[in-house]
Fold:
Amino acid sequence: MAVVKGSQQEHLVITQYRPWQKARRALFVLLMLALVGGGGYFVGWYDSWTSTSRLSAERDQLLQELHRAERTISTLTQRVGILEKGGEVDRQATEGIRQTVVELKAQISSLEEEVAFYKGIMAPSSSDMGLRVSKIDLTAQESGAVRYSIMLTQVADNSSFIAGLAAVNFVGMRNGERVMLPLRDLDRGVDELGVRFRFRYFQEISGELVVPEDFVPEQVQVVLQSTGSKAQRVEKSVEWLQ
Structure:
């Protein structure tokens, strides 16, 4: 066949006809894909199983450590509780002992005062003979009132009774002026201007008084005036509650 110069040429390729070759190639590709996919799946499964096993082991170990820590905490908590109870018992015992010592000291002081009081009555010095104001006590109460106690004694010369009148006055400031209020103005249980006394050894004048709001007390003044052939006048003053 003649060839025209400058025209496009076509090449004819002749190949052997093999109808099963494409099928074999496709099967081979499928097998390779299956092997790669299966291998990847196996590798992934193995890696996942290994990781799961490792994590499970770590979890079990952490649980064991957690249980040990909980047991340790429980033991320490019990020990702390025991120590706290022991410390509280010790504190209570110490406080009880301290309170007992304080009470015993107060009792001893009270007994010493009583001994000195009776000793002063029965065996006084020569300068303490006759009628005396032995003690004036003032004690504030929770209610706001004030408890007072005035002890009168007849020292040494107590073979007979002594009688008379006790004037109890409170000296202080009211509206900028110094005034003196009698006991009956502060103690509702006292009606008379003075308190009568009659005793052989001693007598206590006591009660509760309420201080007026416009009065600021500074001193308590006690004046005793006995009657009879051996009449005496005795005065004693003490400062108000500080």
Observations:
- Residues 39 and 136 are 111 Å apart (CA to CA).
- Residues 21-122 form the longest helix (102 residues).
- Residues 20-123 form one domain.
